[in-house]
Write a structure and sequence with these properties.
27% of the residues lie in helices and 32% in strands. The protein is of the alpha+beta class. The chain folds into 2 domains: 133 residues, no CATH class; 118 residues, TM1622-like (Protein Transport Mog1p, Chain A, 3-Layer(aba) Sandwich). A 7-stranded antiparallel β-sheet has the order 7-8-9-13-12-11-10, with helices on both faces. It has a 6-stranded antiparallel β-sheet with strand order 1-2-3-6-5-4, with helices on both faces. 37% of the residues are buried.
Length: 274
């Protein structure tokens, strides 16, 4: 009985994340529903699939719907976790345009709406070329109601100080944080040209090993009395910077201009981490 209930719950959740043209009255399905998993996504969006895959893309379910002479293309992409889905949203949003209250974060343009909710990234595109704002908004709101998932932004974004923060700049970088392959995945926020970062490793030992790799990468550095381990240096590409290890996390500031202290900034950020 318990197994049956678990199966039923899983099946219900799967249905909830599947787009359906009947979700918005008056629309009918055009062609077959779409399903792409893993790397075969390139068959659908060749040239842009890598942008999904670096965030850990799992699968996409999609459908095209028509009403009168208009078409909406609805795609629901699944990622390993909410952090990755929100990272996908951040990678596509336009910071020059306002955000919309959808899921964890959304944006609506004249021909497209997109948002992240839980581990899902949802997109609605409209054709032909004209202002479809009302249509894509209606679809986005209906999908937001249907799809289950958390709506709070990932916790690490709240660790960055708000003072001086470039609005909306805090985001997940899925690989090569600050341009270093050593720093595989983490969060970065902009303070003008200055970058703050937080990287969470799987263990203290992994974080300690990453610090050793950074020391080898920089060559010349100064040891700093902060956290469990810390260094400061001047890099050819990232300018003045400081890296502090606090448990299994690495944090700090890079590209810090003269007149500001990278060590003081990094210590203040480290103090905000759990």
């Amino acid at each position: 009985m318990i197994l049956f209930l678990l199966f039923a719950a899983a099946a219900s959740a799967a249905v909830a994340q599947t787009p359906d043209c009947s979700l918005v009255p008056g629309w009918t399905q055009q062609g077959k529903a779409r399903l792409y998993e893993g790397e075969n996504l390139y068959e659908y969006i060749n040239g842009n699939s890598e942008g999904y895959l670096i965030y850990g893309f799992t699968r996409m379910k999609g459908v095209s719907c028509t009403k009168g002479g208009d078409t909406v293309i609805v795609d629901v992409s699944e990622f390993p976790d909410a952090e990755s889905a929100y990272g996908m949203f951040c990678a596509n949003r336009d910071l020059e345009k306002p955000a919309d209250p959808l899921g964890m974060g959304g944006q609506i343009t004249p021909r497209k709406s997109f948002f992240a909710k839980g581990k899902y990234y949802i997109e609605v595109a409209a054709e032909p070329e004209k202002d479809h704002t009302a249509t894509v908004r209606e679809w986005a709101q209906a999908l937001d109601q249907k799809i289950a998932g958390e709506t709070g932004i990932p916790e690490p974004i709240g660790w960055f100080p708000k003072e001086g923060l470039t609005s909306g700049s805090a985001r997940l970088v899925p690989q090569s944080v600050l341009g270093f392959r050593i720093l595989k995945r983490g969060y970065v926020a902009q303070y003008g040209k200055t970058k703050a970062f937080v990287i969470t490793e799987v263990s203290v030992e992994e974080a300690s090993g990453t610090m050793d790799k950074l020391r080898a990468r920089f060559g010349e550095f100064q040891k700093v009395a902060a956290g469990d381990d810390a260094i400061q240096t001047t890099d050819r590409y990232l300018g003045r910077l400081c890296v502090i290890r606090k448990g299994k996390r690495l944090t700090g500031y890079a590209s810090v201009p003269e007149g500001q202290d990278p060590v003081a900034l990094s210590k203040a950020l480290a103090a905000r981490l759990p």
